[in-house]
Amino acid sequence: MSVTALIGLGGNLGDVRPRLDAAIDALGALPGVRVLARSRFYRTPPWGNVDQPDFVNAAIAVETSLPAHGLLDAMLATERAFGRLRDGERWGPRTLDLDLLAYGDAVIDDARLTVPHPRIAERAFVLLPLADIAADTVLPGLGRVADLLAAIDAAECIPLA
Asked: Would you name the residues annotated as active-site residues?
């Protein structure tokens, strides 16, 4: 059985855009994962710790036969393959960040995974690229992506050519 999952991508260290392209290719090459759609890239201001370079963010939709935690494990392995070290710093600089934003219409909240992503409704850097590929998707308990985006200020997030 396949599920459509939504994944947010970002980074702000090194040559980010080619790394995001390569990460999307790597995710699409995983057994049981097929990329269905990808957003534009956006330059976005940092969140939390603002004393760092701007981020480049994107989103993809994938069709997957992996269970949610299996997809999460594959995403974390992909981050590591691209030089990401999870050192416990929240909102710090990173080579690659992959977030499982939604997994079909599942609601999961356990020690390892929360979907839909818990802060998605307040983050323009997530909602803008997500709206490129899934504007009409209803996130369980939150609402339609386009409506969530309309409710926040996204002026500082700039689409890249």
From this structure: 84, 94, 97, 99
